[in-house]
Write a structure and sequence with these properties.
It is a single chain. The chain is α/β, with parallel strands linked by helices. It has 2 domains: about 160 residues, Metal-dependent hydrolases (TIM Barrel, Alpha-Beta Barrel); about 120 residues, Metal-dependent hydrolases (TIM Barrel, Alpha-Beta Barrel), CATH 3.20.20. Helices cover about 40% and strands about 10% of the residues. It has 11 helices and 8 strands. It is globular, with a radius of gyration of 18 Å. Pfam families: Peptidase_M19. One of its GO terms (molecular function) is metallodipeptidase activity. This is Peptidase. One of its GO terms (biological process) is proteolysis.
Amino acid sequence: MNHKRTLGKKSTTGHLDIPRMKEGGIDVQFFAVFIEDIYKPDRSLKRALQLIDCFYKEIEKNQDDISLVINYNQIKEVNRAGKIAAILSIEGGEALEGDLGVLRVLHKLGVRLLTLTWNQRNQIADGIGESQTGSGLTEFGLKVIDEMNDLGMLIDVSHLSETGFWDVIKRSKTPIVASHSNCYALCPHLRNLKDEQIKVLTDKGGVIGITFVPNFLTQEKRKTTVKDVVKHIDYLVEKVGVDCIGLGSDFDGTGDLPLGLEGVDKIPNLTEELLNRGYKEREIKKILGRNFLRVFKEVVG
């Protein structure tokens, strides 16, 4: 919306468009509505609606290649038609502006995943940038979890403070996801998950999307590569098994990216590295999307 790019035309800027998704073999993609800081807190909903409108216009202009999907069966139907399935999400619960009615309307507009916070505090909880408070979910936040469970929406704990994370674990009746987070043991950044968080999230049937953001891959001051991404995948496989792992690239949500993963068209490089590490085809398919689809089917229907 801000960079005058279009989804249908291959671009030399950014990380993702339809031509590059086709090159990368992508058939299902989450599209996250991200609310910039200047719109917080009192213009968050308006900005979210503007971005959803932009998303809808791009889908309509490219309807031969991509379609919005709101349930698992639609994903299958769209893929059988040779098109990309687009899942709409919102990154930051400030879009609700403290109103459960807004959550229900956003669900009616097709939103199927909500990242509860970004790095700051909102009406739901504190993000990782406010971790010093030690606070968990607010009373409104608890109601949001209940309502999302009832609506059949994926709860995303990436960016959420650790104390908030544990409240979500206790409250949610359905599996949750960390859409774009890595392993704290390999890279001790606040945005990454500690071993005990990883274990409980996966015990509940959830999925962790390994992100390509260099600062979340390593603290070493060097250029990252595909191998750094696979190190985090290897670590999760060793700790909790392959069924909890997905990809949470953060394409178009970050600046720098690892060598070999500069855009969505480079995803085959990750597949190649997994094959080189001895992963079996069925394991790779789970990592590349089947695990996320399993949770989507269970929670959303």
